[in-house]
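Section handout 9: paired folding examples.
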Amino acid sequence: MKSKISTAALFFALTSLTYAQAPVLKEKEIEKAPAKPKAEKIVIENKTPYVPGGVIVVDTPTQKKVKSAENTLVEIFLDSKGGLEKASGGLIEKDEFDPGQGMLNLKAAVAAAKKDGKEISGQWAFEKNDRGNWVYEFEGKHEGKEVEILLNPRTGRVMSEETDDNEGEAE
């Protein structure tokens, strides 16, 4: 019986010794423990400077399709160096586009064309002409016929107006 008591006492002593060596933290000490630094939130901006308030929905190295704030789709085409090559859209009344570089944005270009008496609507494009100069290209109507209007984005002046004389004829 003495051996059972001795064994129990020895077990109790070893267990007490093991727990006595482990530090016991009080509540206040736990609060003082250094907090892990919070992870910084990574924000990926899916925007382009060419469509203010727009969100890129298709993003490739040479093409970006951007949903405008008005829920329209503007296509931006880039050259191999990432510079603007051309842009286009289908709803001139709602699309947003700003080429920067001191040129008129789409809304100002449309206003300039309308001020010149042009009736424009629908599709538009921003691209370089045969001489390598930037132009806005608008679709419009004149005397019931479809016309293509080219506007200088730096001055707001209509550069040319081409009427489709073959409209309605079979090809």
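Moving on to protein 2 of 2.
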Amino acid sequence: MPLLVAVASVMFLGCAMAGMERDFTRGALAALEGAVAIAAIALPRSRTAIFETLKRFSRPAAAYSALLLLAAVMSGAFFVGGASDPWRAEQAMVGLAGTGFFFVAAAGAATAGGRNRMITAMLVTPVALTLLIILDRFDGQLDFFGISTAPMENRLAGPFPSPNEAATAFALFAVVAAFAIVDELTRRPAPRGTLPPPALTQRLFLPAISFLASLNLLALTGSRAGIAAGVVGLAVYFALAWLRGLKGRSGPRLVPIAAGAVALIALFVASTSGAGAMKRYVASDAVTPPYSAMTTTALQSWRERPLFGHGLGAYDLLPAGGAGASNDIVRWLAEAGLVGLGLALAALGGLLFQLWRAKDHGRRPTRGFALAAGLAATVVVHGLASPALSSPAVSALFAGLLGLAAAYVDPDADAVKIKPTARTRVLG
């Protein structure tokens, strides 16, 4: 249980510190993620779960390790560097390593401590952030108690430095909350000893509150890309959950009902909270760099080093650094080149493929695949409009939720075999 709380606490602290200076946030988050991973490895049950996770997802782990090696080489860790500014590349490499550690720590904690408990711990974060954002509004300044700078567009950003980053985070929380709702509706809880299992309304309370909070804050950001990403992520998740539910008894009925209820709630939120946020966004006179100009400049920078890029974290040094990258793809191309982008896609795609092939309660696809696909769709769609994964907090959140998804896999046959002992030999 303490490990579950530690994983959820890292998520909360990462979101709460998101609006602070980015280099500090990246370093602090990497330290926290590394500490949680060390704690998970130190505990016997979670250590076994982590090793099983790495064994099961060995190919995606190998691709991610190769990406880390590329980042290390570009930063000059082996006395041969290709980055224009090695210290910035080193920071990005440390952040990338922390994200990988957090994935395995979340997967190990969810497997050893209980997946439903892990979801409960994670879903407290958006509710806590919502309460803090409400308290922050009392002074009339949307600066999250002075930690984050108020956005020029007069849109809600909460603890995040921009409404777009806030939208990405709350869209991810909305997907995992929807996953928790469907999972509670379609499963039969095991009795807790002599006590009866908790009622369905009790089990649905936190996921429903978390979903409503995430959806309202997503709408209040006024981010068109974030809202579109949230809608696509939820649609992908519900489609895959329905596909899995066709092989069960309650899924064919309950999943469409849950999806319909979510759609109605989303329309209501969009017509209330979202309408005002979008009007303020359209009426704002904030000047933003042209999307096409940023894309063209980033592609020109990529052509200078097409294979290995300028080094992770080096985008601030490129000509387009003052305006920022237009989306995740051109940013990864400029920083990591074709090789780095290919390794990142191989790691994420390999994870999804393994979750598709694996079994969950004897059925395919796994619940984890539906969750991971919804999360990936959210990040990819938003990443087409702005660099969603450039935020250390969003990267940590995405890695932790993917770690949760990786836990929804049946154990290997070798792991459930009874090892021969003196007692089992006598019984045999």
